[in-house]
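ok here's the first one, seq then struct tokens
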Amino acid sequence: MRWTQRLRGAGTVVAAAALLGGALAAPAAQAAAPRAGQLADLVNPFIGTENEGNTYPGAAVPFGMVQFSPDTGHNTGYDYSQNHIRGFSLVHLSGVGCGLGGDLPVLPTTGDVSQTDYAKYQAEFSHDDESASPGSYQVGLKTGIEAELTASERTGVQRYTFPATDRANVLLNAGQSLHRTVSTKVEILDSRTVRTAITGSGFCQATKPYTVYTITRFDRPFTTSGTWSGDTVTPGSKESAGTGRNGAFVRFDTRKDRTVEATTALSYVDAGGAAANLRSEGGRSFDTVRRAAQRSWEDRLGDVRARGGSDTLRRTFYSSLYRSFLAPNIGSDADGRYTGWDQRIHRAEGFTYYQNWSLWDTYRTQSQLLSLLAPHEARDMAISVVKIDEESGWLPKWGYGTAETNIMTGDPVTPFLTNAYQQGLLKGYEERAYRALKKNADGMPPADSPAVGREANREYIANGFAPYIKGRPHTKPGDSDYDHGPSATLEYALSDAMLAEMARDLGHEADAARYADRAQNYREIFDPSTGFFRARDASGAFAGPEDPAKSEGFHEGTSWQYQWLVPQDLPGMVDLIGGKQAANDRLDSFFAYEQLLKDPAKTARDVWVNGPYDYYNADKYNPQNEPDLIAPYTYLSTGQPWKTTDVVHAALTLFTDAPTGMTGNDDLGTMSAWNVLSSIGIFPVQPGYDTWGLSTPVFDRVDLTLDRRYYPRGGLTITAPGTSDTARYIQSARTDGAAYDRTYLTTESLRGLRSLAFTVGGEPSGWGTAADAAPPALN
């Protein structure tokens, strides 16, 4: 199925009954298992393209360097509510919150070339003439031109069908992107080939520039060509370079042959790398590349076979699974060369180098999903992060291409790498990774390093907390931990806990004890007078409003939303706020639990925090942003695991199969991975460790095909026959036929399992409520 979009905003108004009864409640008899080889038919790439989900509908292969997609004028690329396309560009990241990428927007036109600003020559289109599927995108422009896109790992392939004319143009706009373009160079090499070099900077705030090189090869000669600089178009010119708008046009006679195909290769190394990638992956027809892209997605999606549930549920699930495999992205060329963070050229030996690290987001869900379903690639990704430290001197925080952006706060790289270690992905690199993590945990980058690392580490180590210093000037581009002292403290402490476990496993006992002690630093920002976490200023005094809903210093959240971000020691946190009863009362208030039981979908949409950037002044659950992703699973530690299922299933209703069907920014697959993991009933409740919390799946059966190099059994089957909105409570669980009473599994236990079977019913049971059933505290 190619998704043809016709009903704008269809997901905005969805009846609660349809959401629960259709998406979560349909029994297996109403929906057969997906047909073999047809799972990609369930993917709708338009989900999340409206209401700031910031996804893109264009063509990519799993983890590919190229994401060939239309740009409509939205700062991150495509917005479903807009109806003009400025160009089809090569680089996009799914769900980012700020503009980046959008390099080399290409647009077919007819007639004279007189405009060089893509906001002026943009082409109108209708969603009635637009379709997309994994690895493919097509649109009919109101100019009478049909555009089709597909991709391989390092190339984007385009096919344009023009009206019969002697002035069919393709515009290659090197000087305009979604980020800030620093300088560009365009060269027409011969009658079929155009080369560019694009140096850009950006993503939320200015960062160190990076350069991307492209080469575009057409399937037949141009009849004429030219370049532009600024507003001046020069027919016959072969080169344009410098700051400002630079681009090229090539022209074809389509009166007899109306179709033009071209392949554009990308490299972050040099022009030779782009040419080598073109030789390696180019030379194939559009249809051949599209079939290969579709096969790659079918193979990837086929590792998860979900049975039962409604069509809507399976579409949202497989669309989320698809988005979970869009990033990180290949950064090395076909010959293994890549540009490191020292801006030097290196060669990946024995692994593929990856880039684009939204770690504050992905360390909570997506990295764990990839470790489960794509461990070979996840290993290469972890090795790539270790290489960043070895080549630049420091580990990344939020890396784009070849540069650090320093966006977000805390220390997200630590749980990312300790998760890789705990999942067995760092064999041969354990000590190298540990040395990098220890340096990161105990020190700070020098002034001449682009990285900020743990910016408030000096105060944190000395006093046990990162101070909140309002208005402190930033010393480097990006976010500052001093602006977000209390949340940075919680993030540091979480990372210390995960590093302590790795240190202990590797025999570094003194380090393990020191980090375990620091993992308790969450207590240093707990204010007994309010019963909540609060900011502390440089003097140590509590700062900001006492009302936890109006608290200051929490990055994209409030004290209410951050109070559960202590996965390393939830029993300790529960004791701080007065024990399990007090914790459950607070959780019930946080989730509006009584209202949720009466109307889950309405509570999720109207009572919980909604709006992709609605972060502050709230005392309720925010299912659209990262700090709260683990929160529903807190009930596993307070003796009421059935409430985890209630909250999770309510949150799942926020995912629909319409353009508005993404809850918040997807952040490189973070929210999508939350949906996938929560839907199959296993979730990483201690990110950076190997603990998987259990809740009721929304499918009768899910068969996971797992890599035997990491999971010797080769697969895991999770069953919950009859699961629905009215029969969603776990009555009992069995692992390989044996009764299982705990609310969590470890990766080690998963490796030995063939089956995890749940019996479900209409009322909560005593399953998982024993004192030893909850995930244990670490350290």
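and now the second one, same deal
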Amino acid sequence: MGRLNKTTKLLLILLGLSFLVFAGIHMIEEKEIYELSKAMVEEGDRYYQKKEYKKAKTFYDRALKRYNDLLVLKIIKRGEIKELENKLQTDPILQKVAKGYIYYNGKWVNEKELEALMREKRRLKQKIDVYLKTAKFFGSIEDIENNITIYQNALKEINNSPFKDDKDFNEIKKKLIGKIIFLSEEAAKKYTKKGNLKKAGKYYELVLSYREDPDIKEKLFNIYLQLYNDYLETGDYTKALSSILKAKNLFPERKDILPKIDYVLSKIDFEEIQKEQIHDPYVYYTLAKKSYSRFDIPEAQDFVEKALKLDPQFIPALKLYGKILIDTGEISKAEKVVNKLLNKAPDDIDVIILAGDLKLKKGDLEGAVSYYEKAESRSEVKDKLFKVYKKLGQAYASTGELHKAKSYLLKAVKIKDDPVVYKSLGDIFFKLGDYKSAEKYYLQAVKIDKNLKKEVSQNLGQIYLTFAENLKKQKKYKQAITYYKKAVSYLGSKPEIIKNIAFCYEKSGDLKTALSYYKKIKSAKLKEKEAKLYLSLGEKEFRKGNYFSAVKHFKKAVSIDRNLINKVKDKLTTSYIKIGDRYMKQGSYEKSLSYYLKAVDTDKTLQGKLKDKIFTAYLKLGEKAFSSGRYKTAFNYLKKAEKIKKDNKKLVYYLGEIYLKEQNYKKALEYYEYYLNNYGGSPEILKKISLIYAKLGNLKKAKEYAENLIKTGKFLDVANFITGAYYYHFEKDPDKALRYFLKSENFGYRNGELYYYIGRIYYDKGNYLRAIAYLTEAIKNGYKKEKVYYLRALAYLKLKDYRKAINDLSMVVKYNPDNAKAYYLRGKLYYEHGDYVKGEYKKAIEDLEKAAAMGIKEAVTLLDKARTKK
């Protein structure tokens, strides 16, 4: 029994081992089946993604079949198997495949529908073949355009069919697009050669609609620019704007386009722009800027909102919008815009400034500072930053936070020299006991604004008094004097301060100055001593030749004691004369004159002695004023000189010149003839006298002087002109006059009046061509008068050059709108030789009506004819 048990046990063990071996081998096989099934699912997923659903279902079915062959792993992998089963049972696409549907050209069809689609595809191919055969390239622009249309129609047929994504048709589409691109380029080139830029642009646009091409973009860009320029020339600004905006769309980064847009926008009314329904944010942004600059804030806001509607991320428009919202107090909206800008462009200086402006508007001064300091390099920010620093400093000063106040105010003065800030700093340092700094800032404040002296005087005076007292204690008397004097300038001459100044001078050894201060402390005893001291000082300076100081001391002595005047008179007048002489040598004639006159005022007996010096000073001042063009001033000085001495060559000459410049010809003549009679002949004076007589209408006298001038050989151009004028007007001898006029021209006289006279003589002689030439020269040389144009018009009329005659008659009525003959002649010319198409018969009637109204009888008769002819 025990032996049997052993055998049984052994068999059982062997049986167990066999089972384990079998199970292990089976598990290995199951794992292989599972891995294969999983690979089939993955392959099915790939086909599913590629929309090859029939193949995908085949792989899913095979994978599920193998999953079902599993024993052990079927239990373990139940979730995966169930997921695959669900997909096959519930996925609508796989269900369609199961029912025999086919996925073709983006939709599920049954066999019958597939057959219909295939027939439709075959017919479409045939149709496209017809299109391709119809298109022939013969080389003419019309053929090219026709072929483009055919290829576009073929492409349209495919795109409108169920086969637009079909592989076969994709190749045909590529071919069609290639042909359209090629032919469009050819068409664009041909139209460019013909100068038809609109058509060329149209075909380059077509190329770019199919293919991104940098070269084509550049060509199209240049076409848009040329069209823009062409439209500007014709004044079609709306089309110009459209062209330049198209150019901008091609190259949005090109900044050189923006000024062109700005320019054309300045030529178009806002209403006209809005009618065009432009969809470019920059246009509305530019209009907004213009409105903003005109302070039309509502309009600016309307435009900038349109710009942002088109492009909510347009930074320049957002910046302007932010400004407008801050200006109008719409703080919550402004915050949103500014925060958006800070997120998009945190380093943009304009955005940083805008953020500062918003903080300032909200009353957050320190917040404003934090932004403004980031942009302090900008000039406009410096002013804002200064104002905020100033406000913060004053605010902290008012609450007693002196160190904070000082910090902000010091920053403010680094930006701008502001007297109020300097004064505030002075007050702060004064309260802190830093008198040196307080003095510095108080002085800066007063230097800029003198009106602040009153406000800072008490504190400054106290500062200087403190400095002086400390120095006095240290026995530094000279330094103490300086500060006591400064204290006086702010606190006034208080007896105690004056006494201390006198004391310091006494201690430093300057007894005279000490005395001068002691006497200020009301003491009658010191007056006589003071006057004698000034007298001694004056005499001392006089001996040294220091005449300015001597005068100063003498006058002070006399001001204290009038009895000293006789004692100092000689030395005082001598000092005045010496000072006057010095100024005369330096060329300071006005100063020298004032001192000579002071000497005379002090001692009337000196009038004769100083007569020549005073005359010279007046003459020199007159010359100086004349040379600088101040003729009225010069005249006043010279007339004063004339009262002293009449017989002086320079005096007579300059007075004659001034009268001539004032066109007081009779007085000028008086002085020039006196000059000629007393100081000898001068060609220049002869010329001026001759011209004056001519101006006064005394041609006989003018000729006499002109003949004398000819003898000198000087100013022959003017002399011959005047002689010619004499023979023309006085002797009525045009031939002789002409000889002199031509001589004048030969000697270089370029005068409009001369050319007029020559032209007039030639006209009278019947030499109309020469007359016209000289009359034209007269006009060129500034002789633009009614009579010149009228005479030249008559000359043109003689030569039957009616158009030029009309032009000159137009100039006549421009200069004299009451010239009836000019209106009559021009009306007659318009009537007889005018252009009906240009409406010149109408002009004829207008001119003849004016002439008739002015009493020209011939105009009345011609007017009736003109009206009939009209």
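notes on #2: The CA atoms of residues 67 and 78 lie 9 Å apart. The first strand starts at residue 102 and ends at 104.
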